[in-house]
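TEACHING EXERCISE
Course module: macromolecular assemblies
Task: Read the component lines below, then compare them to the predicted structure of the full complex.
Student: A.B.
Group: 4
Components provided:
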Amino acid sequence: MVTTTRSEVPRAPAPVEPEVPHARNPGMPLEAEWVEEVRVNRSAVERRASTLTTRRSVKKDWQAAWLLKAVACMDLTTLAGDDTPGRVQRLCAKARRPVRRDILEGLGADRLGLTVGAVCVYHAFVETAVRALQGSGIPVAAVSTGFPHGLSPFETRLAEIRASVEAGAREIDIVITRAHVLTRNWQALYDEVRAFREACGDAHMKAILATGELATLRNVYQASLVCMMAGADFIKTSTGKESANATLPVGVTMARAIREYGERTGHAVGFKPAGGIRTAKEALAWLILMKEELGNAWLEPTLFRFGASSLLRDIERQLEHHLTGRYSAGHRHPMA
Amino acid sequence: MSRIAEIFETMEYGPAPESPDRVDAWLRAHDARFDLFIGGEWVAGDPGERFEVVRPSTGEPLAEVTQASEADVDRAVRAAREAFATWSRLSGHERARHLYALARGIQKRARLFAVLESMDNGKPIRESRDLDIPLVARHFYHHAGWAQLIERDLPGYEPVGVVGQVIPWNFPLLMLAWKIAPALAAGNTVVLKPAEFTPLTALLFAELCRDAGLPPGVVNIVTGDGRTGAALVAHPDVDKVAFTGSTEVGRIIRAETAGSGKKLSLELGGKSPFIVYDDADLDSVVEGVVDAIWFNQGQVCCAGSRILVQESVAATLERKLRARMETLRMGDPLDKGIDIGAIVAPVQLERIRSLVEQGRREGARIWQPSWSTPKEGYFYPPTLCTDVAPASTLAQVEIFGPVVALMTFRTPAESVELANDTRYGLAASVWTENVNLALDIAPRIKAGTVWINCTNLFDAASGFGGYRESGYGREGGREGLFEYVVPSWTRALKKRDRAFGPKPADASGTRPLEEGATPPPAPAPVDRTPKLYYGGKQARPDAEYALAVIDAEGHFVAEVPRGNRKDVRNAVEAAHRGARAWVPRTAHNRAQILYYMAENLSYRADEFAARLRALQGIRRKDAEREVELSIRRLFTYAAWADKYDGAVHHTPFRNVTLAMPEPIGAMAAVCPDEAPLLGFVSVMAPLVCMGNAAVIVPSQRWPLLATDFYQILETSDVPAGVVNVVTGLRTELTPVLAAHDDIDGIWYFGDADGAAEVERLSTGNMKRTWTTYGAPLDWWSDEQGEGEHFLREASQVKNIWVPYGE
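Instructor-supplied answer key:
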């Protein structure tokens, strides 16, 4: 039997964890040179993304725990034209009790106080949601700034943010002007996001890049950087309305931008993939991506959120299956 | 707190083991003891000594296999020979069906193969499941296709015969597939010896051969250690040897088979560069390094074990690498969540340790991540070595472990110099976002495979193999197929012992003169004393020894220098200067110069014909024909210069895989005695056509045809050093050239003893050799005297992988 002794080898320092994970990102002056030197090799990023889930596997109790974590990191979302107060209230009720109590008890997770990360709605329903979530500690997030296209008048977009904050939203999901990225006008992008950030005041700001409309991964990385420089607390992939949603290669790219920004500035910025994430398996893949590229701090709702509407249902089914050994059905879990 | 609640806090991965149950059941069904697979049956060894196969992750025994003796090997070769008679006569389509059945069989047993491979070798199940086994199936599919097409695609070729194959332990089943699939597709039969550490998947494959209905004896598997391999290589009825393994053993095999006439392909060691330019995507580079050196525990012949990074980004890359190394996971090879498994055996672990220790003593900084390795089994942590110089052991020696050395460079030119500063030449990886830079660097690196912005990608459609001491021959692709066929006309060669062509007068030829001896008076009015020719001009020989040239009438005509080792040395140096000028020339330009030679020879055709007649005493018609054929031959290679080109292989990735024939470098050629003009032209022209520089020893008996040719070279715009001629005694010059470590390949068309000596002496730098083992070629025939087989011997295929997508 052979073992390796390496006392003589210098040890690595402990991995760097952000000191105050929930501390906000104050941003920094635009550094265009840094943005321009960004290089992203699409094929290599795709290879990394495709092997993330083949290199790591989460099974049994670990899988159950990870799925519960996915619930805790979920921005339970409704962003449809036919939203009504009743629909939003239902969503909020689900946000408070995302998983059936008996399942949580069976998993030994009933004392975790599990709720979703936030409820995400249009401005029109912020007040409704805030009321419905009173006392739960669950923040309300509002999509804002001319969501999803972001092309309404600039002043209108600022006013929208202020209105949502005033209505009680503690998180604002803004959308960027894609044209600024496509025309490589970093200053305009920076100024826009900076202004949004100021309008947010104490509310945390998530910058939606709409990566499906940014054409290249290099654009995605560069837009991520500029948004972080401008003070985004989170960067988010998609509105859910673009034809291409959150993909793992995009996630790898944005995570690397977050890492680089954190290493250079000391500020931890959160990440939110959104759009098209519907299955427990996909959720695990995103969690693996976070753990691998950014570390455990990005497995907490302070720095990681899923934007999702139908994901929860699949996770509930998987959790019940873990408990009973029988495949579960959707109607066995209360709907949102 | 419940376990789930606890994991909810820690967010650890937890174990994810693949079950060994099916493998255990398979081993039990065999009582964990294996015989040899010969003639389609399990046959007990004679005397049947056995040895233990160990599971590297635990050190526990897995099974007992047979140590095949010489007698066992002989039985296996006889079975293969017997099967060859029918197998080689099956239609391509029938062989295709068999290969297809093997491909399907592997897919159906993919999980069993993968788990067994990981248990036997120690590699992570992810790799055996996602890479090794799918590539094995892909290899059989691809070669089922070659079997189907070979008759129409390679007319005039036939299988070599019985092939002895010896494979290593790092990719046991994959190396088996790389060896067996092309051999069978081309109609050969096989005796294969798996590595002693990892024979089990080969034995499972044997079972598959039987179940899939492969005719008995087509594939025979003999297990054992180096002694079994040696017996197989030495067996007189083996027509070809294919070996993958260390350069050390490859050298022995080359020496052992020298002069035997066995066709040989060797895929040997490497110390492959991984070059990072300052405009690379460094985060992707880091993952590239993971794939380059922590894939299969670094036990990969083409592992990117030398990181060469542009100085300006070196510190950043190093920081990123260290951070990444912290998140690598090592452990049970059957765990689906690990990156690095176990080292194959204690002896290998010890070798890694001692080399790293030596590196440390030489001043390298050794860095390993903070996590600890498993306590049981054979594990070695990923290791990054900095403060390494090209002179360091860590930069020169193949470690075959998860250890990478990092060095810096300043300019692209220096990166190429550093990359090529090695005896090896298996693979290279080039990282830059600049396509101009990537495609400039790739052809300048001496390596059989160059991966742009990727690494360790393999496919059956792409030829894999080395330059320099990394061996010769290719595996995969069209280029790999030629390792398992021979031109049909070569069959007749062995039977012939007399030169082709007109019969010259017995009296004619050369004889050595004593140093300073006065030759008989020359008949010519003005003394014409040719010298040697190198570096674009005639050069006085080092010593004053000479050969007297005697014509057909027995009269002295002239003297030519009797070149010696110093003349060879000078000529080789001139050839390297010539190659530097010649390689960048366009194919069109090389064609122009070959045409120009033909034109100038045509202009002086009468003079050359007269010389042939006077020296050899042959008929005018025969002399004129030799000159005419020489002109024609120059035309042939001028024509081919811009047509013998490469391919874009269809590898299943979003990329172009460019297969480019490249010159081998500075080549030596020893001409036959007969056909003193045509033989000279027939070896010079293809070498030059493909971009090589040549050092040529012309016909010893009638050297004046070559020395007369100097003036053709001088008037045809041939750059200095591209063609160099050293006259003299073949027995004196050949060994110097064959042993010269800066000659990249040698062709020899002298006698059988000389051919054996050439092969034996080639092992210093593992130069490529081509001989006919003393059998004369018919230089007057288009089939034998010219053709693609000359071009193939004058070039080597480099595969450049260029992924794309923005």
